[in-house]
Amino acid sequence: MDKDLLYKEDRLVEVEGIKTNTILDKFYFKTILQDRAVYQSLDGIPRQAILHLVGTNGTGKSLLVANIASNLIQNKKVLYINTEVIGDMIYSKIYERCKILGLEFKRDNLFIIDLVRNNEALYEPDKLLNYLKEKKIIHQIDFVIIDSLTAFYEGLENVAKKIVRKIYNFFKVWRKTGIFISQKRSSHEENTSEAAGGYGVAHILDSTIVLVKKVINNKWEAEYYGVSRGKMIRLMRVDDCRVCAHISKEILFEITIEGEFKIVKEKER
Predict the structure, then answer these.
(1) Where are the domains of the chain?
(2) Among residues 30, 95, 127, 266, which is most buried (max CB within 10 A)?
(3) Among candidates 63, 57, 56, which has minimal Cα distance to 191?
């Protein structure tokens, strides 16, 4: 073996937050060791972590990352790798979100990779990763969004973990922070971290955030959530995080008419 596998750098990585100005900023904490452990909000998502956003269709995943991108391009460079709709629509959506949120649309800080029009790299992720290196895009960006990760292994779920690991490792080695979206299959339970490709996908990434749409069907649920029967509610929870402490409560939230995510109530698990 040519390379020495023994780690020798002794480099500490401080737990810091990247502020997104979204609901996610309330979910993660750093541990301060004094006489006892004290948890302090990161006021952001953990830097150099790759977050996994998972949920069924219509739970708000793409809207949430569009809000995050709109806020981050104010002072950071964001790479948006799109596999679901053409790049023009992503450009227009983030432009619109900036206007609605009262933000400046800083086009020079947004890099869009359109894998709908140029889908060769979708089936050969190495080509995409090599492109990011050759064009020095990876050197310029601070944050990466993939919407969605599922498209890279559509019909190849038996090798999903291998594909996800390759993409994840690439951005981790370059010390980038990011959010990857995964889709759920109809057979999956809505409130679990399982996505297309199985539980292994969530296991690879640093933290999984589960989004759920739920119709209240019985009296117990109505009393528990404090809403009337027949009402549709939205839930969010952090399933895990390997890099720092996180909120352990289930969050009842709403999406406002302006497209912002607002906490309605926090429920103990």
Answers:
(1) 17-115+122-267
(2) 30
(3) 56
